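Note to self: the last two entries modelled the partners one at a time, which told us nothing about the interface. This time every component goes in together.
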Amino acid sequence: AQSVTQLDSHVSVSEGTPVLLRCNYSSSYSPSLFWYVQHPNKGLQLLLKYTSAATLVKGINGFEAEFKKSETSFHLTKPSAHMSDAAEYFCVVSTYSSASKIIFGSGTRLSIRP
Amino acid sequence: GAVVSQHPSRVICKSGTSVKIECRSLDFQATTMFWYRQFPKQSLMLMATSNEGSKATYEQGVEKDKFLINHASLTLSTLTVTSAHPEDSSFYICSARADGLGDWSDQPQHFGDGTRLSIL
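The predicted structure of the combined assembly is written out below.
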């Protein structure tokens, strides 16, 4: 069985400060991991993905994430938050065994203070 | 690349009406598409997996006669909410996964912008 846990339902940071959104996963097989962002009343946009290559993955809009197998984590970071980063973020896991489905975390709402 | 177009973006209609939502992959082929439902401030709930040329696979608790799915081509899947009622009001999102080489699990799903369905 596989699962995803996003440890924070809401994160608030000041503009220009670092962002850390935490994600832990559980999987019996080698996982593929993804981060998506959702702005209000919009679909999900892919930020980045990990698929067993480099453990530090760089994505769009200055985001990156590091796959740590020993900690079963895939935290999303950004050095300097921008107002436009305010949105909902979802961590997603998939494995070949999961019958074509992907598993979503519960989401983290990121707020940016001016 | 990897653009998914979902139409319409918003629908408001009377109870008892059937509503069709289209999901198109614009620049890639997708044997498999997915339909999700999202309640306010919640994550996405998978409703069904749409397979080109075959019947959709519905998740437990999703009424297949209520939510009709047709995957007529490698770039188009439709979801029809039949005889919609106020409890069907929700945000519906489709996604598509590009056909390609390697494990499907390495391929991300690409999402449409969603359809806000409001049943009066």
